[in-house]
């Protein structure tokens, strides 16, 4: 390809040379070289943006994690390198490991709930009549569309200690101790509401895309299965499930990424409280770094968080990369 | 195939229950926003507001700087969407229509960039912006939001560009258009729907962003609506009517966009997001 553009076939070029008397050939050669450069020029703005606005913050995060950077250094604008001290301190602190374990469990619970319930609702959508399906879709889309901060605020109101509608319902159902219950007062109750919120917000994406995926399964496969004497369950496990497998895999890993960094919901619902007991890694990095003004420490926690996230999604990333290599 | 009555009934019953579960929080937000305070702080919830009041919206809008927040949110969001569309249009054209060395690597880079954990990088971004003395400004916010939505925009637009038949472009070039003219006169008009839905998704992402503006802009003058909403409840204590009115104001633009986009939402997200 490059060879061809560098050296245009001599015939036409010669003709033109005869016509124009010289510079034509050179102009054409320059034009084709520009043609080979064109894709890179078109991609240049996107690459510059990626390097400056994503690559640089990533690198800066790594650099900061090797610095002793607290309030004093920040004000005086001094850079104090302290080697791996931040990492040493983070990795030997009990808090960090507790938060890490909590984040992983939190992510696992959320993702399992989202995927199982989302898949079931998606399959339900495929089974419903068109009017009922439309109705349920509208409900899902409304939940999906709520901005995270607004949704969190609404859940604060639903679960408010006084006049909150959830406490009222629980009281009426006979659970009278819940009448004035403060959901933000304990670790488990805070997590309960936050998980409910995240699951409620995330299911619509899974359910609606799964439904969309089921519509692409060729009807012939089901006919063939029933000709072979497969019942409803068999045709589900032999046709539907294998067909949806790649989709389910991809969605699971996307949900892991999204839930693992669910900063907004955890932070706005209860600020990681009570007593910092509901902090997950991104919130922990924020509180240590920005809140307590140990920016170097915060950066080290952030780097470790990114590494953990990479570890959790390595399997999926490898598949994506491989797929892309095969496809192109 | 005849199913028993129960067999036909349970999917519909489940669907109704699920519908109510998913809609209720949204409904309750609007219902509370329009209810008089007496109906909000009552021992038994008023399920259907009978006297509608706009008082809570008035409280929310009368808050200091409310219109500043609206203007800031709109400015940052619209600019980020426009910038990323322009940058992505050029890039996606190259990725969809040209063959060149390293093309695959560019695509992989953008796929990985799409998964960037922005919430975790806020400390580094704070330091960069601070060193540039740009805290409390809308400029860094706009730039970072542009980058947040850029990978999605490029990858989605790549699909839309590839869907425009190559023959159209070629025949335009046979008719004497240059490649640039062919792009402007033939491809761009056909891309309009794709540009529309892609930009709306960028709009939603930028409109909802919270973590970065929380760290960068402490001045009310430079804050956006999500930050305002997150502090609203703390400021107004138990004035849930006003808080829900504020939530409604932040949500309505996005709810409208989403309902309008419902169909494209699925195909767009599955094409763009699930694939990478």
Quick synopsis:
The complex is a heterodimer of chains A (328) and B (276). With 328 residues, chain A is mostly helical.
Description:
The complex is a heterodimer of chains A (328) and B (276). Chain A has 328 residues and is mostly helical. Chain A folds into 2 domains: 2-64, no CATH class; 85-327, MetI-like (MetI-like fold, Orthogonal Bundle). Chain A contains 15 helices and no strands. The two termini of chain A are 17 Å apart. By secondary structure, chain B is mostly helical. Chain B has a domain at 78-223 and 263-274: MetI-like (MetI-like fold). Chain B has helices spanning 5-34, 37-40, 55-61, 66-97, 103-114, 122-131, 138-163, 166-174, 179-208, 211-216, 225-236, 240-274. The longest helix of chain B is centred in the last third of the chain and has 35 residues, at 240-274. Chain B is globular. Mean pLDDT of chain B is 87; it is low at 268-276. At the A-B interface, helix 3, helix 6, helix 7, helix 8 and helix 10 of A face helix 1, helix 4, helix 5, helix 6 and helix 7 of B.
Based on the model shown, name its key terms:
heterodimer; A: 328 residues; mainly alpha; MetI-like fold; disordered N terminus; B: 276 residues; 12 helices; 0% strand; globular
Question: If you compute it from the alpha carbons, what radius of gyration of chain B comes out, rounded to the nearest whole angstrom?
Answer: 23 Å
**CATH third-level topology of the largest domain in chain A:** MetI-like fold
| Global mean pLDDT of chain A | 86
N-to-C SSE string of chain A, H for helix and E for strand: HHHHHHHHHHHHHHH
- Proportion in β-strands of chain B: under 5%
CATH superfamily of one domain in chain B: MetI-like
Distance between the ends of chain B? 40 Å
Q: What is the global morphology of chain A?
A: flat
Count of strand segments of chain B: 0
Number of strands of chain A: 0
Q: Pairing-aware structural class of the strands and helices of chain B?
A: mainly alpha
Contiguous runs where pLDDT drops below 50 for at least 5 residues of chain A: 1-24
Whole-number total of structural domains of chain A? 2
Kindly, what is the distance between the CA atoms of the first and last residues of chain A, rounded to a whole number of angstroms?
A: 17 Å
Can you give the helix content of chain B as a percent range?
A: over 70%
